[in-house]
Amino acid sequence: MPKLRVYKMRADAIIPRYETSGAAGMDLAACVDTLLTIEPGGTARVSTGLRIALPPGHEGQVRPRSGLAARRGVTVLNAPGTIDEDYRGEVQVLLVNHGSDSFTIEHGDRIAQLVVAPVTRVEVEAVNDEAALGGTERGSGGFGSTGVS
Question: Which one of 11, 41, 61, 135 has the largest count of C-beta atoms within 10 Å of its C-beta?
């Protein structure tokens, strides 16, 4: 099984963990000295107090917690945020408050989840003829072109 190495930048930082045996994501917790309030429409970069080393060939995806999004309108701004395999800085979470009420974060609050996933790298080949891309049933139909039913 691949290993995620985690360094606590502060003694009170919380190591991510899977909450259930079937969970895909590990909860990321806020590591803050004082209360942090995000006003409606506002954003915040929230510290976790952690640095990580992902397994070779993997990325970290910082995703919203569904409960925060559903109940409070708070989600990850750049969802999913991508942590590259070679990044060694602090893991931080960009949150946005789409709700109508202020949202306050305390130290230890679970603010996002981290999913570790394999990465497929590809060789990029530039072609000189659009036909070299190959045809599909959808063709050049744009965003939403396949309808809803």
Answer: 61
**Is the pLDDT confidence value at 107 over 80?**
yes
Contact yes or no for 31/85 (Cβ under 8 A): no
Tell me phi and psi for residue 77, to 5 degrees: -65, -45
Q: Over 70: is that where the pLDDT of 149 sits? A: no
Q: How high is the pLDDT of residue 20?
A: 94
What structural domains does the chain harbor? 5-121 (2.70.40.10)
15: alpha, beta or left? (left if phi > 0; alpha if psi -120 to 50): beta
Mean of the pLDDT values across residues 22-40? 97
Please provide the size of the chain in residues: 149
**Rounded to whole angstroms, how far apart are CA atoms 31 and 34?**
9
32 vs 9: CA distance, rounded Å: 12
Based on the number of CB atoms within 10 Å of its own CB, is 73 exposed (0-12), middle (13-18) or buried (19 or more)?
middle
